[in-house]
Amino acid sequence: MHEPAIPSLTGADPEVARLVQAEARRQFEKVRLIASENYVSTAVLEATGSVLTNKYSEGYAGRRYYEGQQVVDPVEELAVTRARTLFGVDHANVQPYSGSPANLAVYLAFLEPGDTVMGMALPAGGHLTHGWGVSATGKWFRSVQYGVRKETGVVDLDEVRDLARAERPKVIFCGGTAIPRTIDFPAFAEVAREVGAVLVADIAHIAGLVAGGAHPSPVGHAQVITTTTHKTLRGPRGAMILSDAEHAKAVDKAVFPGLQGGPHNHTTAAIAVALGEALDPGFGLYAHAVVQNAKALAAALVERGFELVSGGTDNHLVLVDLTSKGIGGKPAAKAMDRAGIEANYNTVPFDPRKPFDPSGVRLGTAAITTRGLTVEQMPQVAAWIDRAVAAVGDEGELDRIAAEVAELMAGYPMPGWA
């Protein structure tokens, strides 16, 4: 049953309540390996569903365009203070609605339409908002893209430097959505300084690892840092922009009034709760456990003949190239889902297949680590993945795996389910 309980919703709209309960059960019974997902605490859930959703608050604390901010201002100030403390930054803006608007605010703050921006190509592991062609950031700005070496699956920073020297971007993004290796923030900072660019570190995927000391921090190297607040940070669906003092004013002006109206105060409160949880020493143990689980899962998959982009992982993310298995990522991901293992199909570097039917699947260990799974369970998870990929089209076998998965997960508590 969903926790907190939803009796009012059940009475007022049983159809929606039924769907909420069904989703809670689904999350409880499955091995959730989508790298951008996690479980939030019950406290975060309660804050997200609080009466703060009723309040409109254009502007910033102490400088609002609506009255009645006596409670909302301290909520936002608390979130800002905790973000600054957790990441060790001069400034934090906790108002962006999500990661893409946060990145778009960077463009508004530091670029004019047509200016050159440099980011990691989407097929190599970058994000749409780092200047990819189908995104507004690729349509409104002149975008140049770097990738990875075919032999290693890792960014070649000499090529990044050569490209930056030739194209002279005003903003350089580092980070992305399918990067299984440590991001070399000092090396990117050196390139950015040489060409006079603002370095933006998009740590949406690894923010919790950075906060927990399981990944190097971009603070002191990147002038601006963008991140979502869910994924490895275990907060609500929101975002933050962190910066040094020099770039703070431009960031704030870009978020409001540049892109947004009033912030979502219930989300701001939930961000504050999640940041408070991340400030607890136990969060560092969680962050390191996420990485240990990812490494163990990667090793177990390699033992079963799977090919991994870059050969393994340094963080929470494992990118599997299924080419040698003779199956595409989409049918594999759908079979895994039927088998109780939630993942997403994903392009791999130099993928010969189309983006909607790519060669890879992307896995992540943040959510299963929250549930309490350890390195001891990773060989079993890899075995289920292997069986599911081999059983595409065999619904009986996939259902048998799903039953085994549900039996295992029943022994691990889930925040949001009682």
What is the topology?
Blueprint: H1 7-12, H2 14-29, E1 31-32, H3 42-48, E2 59-60, E3 63-64, H4 72-87, E4 91-93, H5 99-110, E5 116-120, H6 136-139, E6 142-146, H7 157-167, E7 171-175, H8 185-195, E8 198-202, H9 207-211, E9 224-228, E10 239-243, H10 245-259, H11 265-278, H12 281-303, E11 307-308, E12 317-321, H13 329-338, E13 341-342, E14 344-346, E15 360-364, H14 366-371, H15 378-390, H16 395-409
Parallel strand pairs: 1-13, 5-6, 5-7, 7-8, 8-9
Antiparallel strand pairs: 2-3, 4-10, 9-10, 11-12, 12-15, 14-15
Helix pairs in contact: 3-11, 4-11, 5-10, 7-8, 12-15, 13-15
Description:
With 418 residues, the chain is of the alpha/beta class. The protein folds into 2 domains: 31-40 and 282-409, Aspartate Aminotransferase, domain 1 (Alpha-Beta Complex), CATH 3.90.1150; 47-278, Type I PLP-dependent aspartate aminotransferase-like (Major domain) (Aspartate Aminotransferase, domain 2). 44% of the residues lie in helices and 13% in strands. The protein has 16 helices and 15 strands. It has helices at residues 7-12, 14-29, 42-48, 72-87, 99-110, 136-139, 157-167, 185-195, 207-211, 245-259, 265-278, 281-303, 329-338, 366-371, 378-390, 395-409; strands at residues 31-32, 59-60, 63-64, 91-93, 116-120, 142-146, 171-175, 198-202, 224-228, 239-243, 307-308, 317-321, 341-342, 344-346, 360-364. The chain has a 7-stranded mixed sheet, with helices on both faces. A 4-stranded antiparallel sheet has the order 11-12-15-14. Helix 9 (207-211) links the parallel strand 8 and strand 9 (224-228). The model has no long low-confidence stretch (mean pLDDT 97).
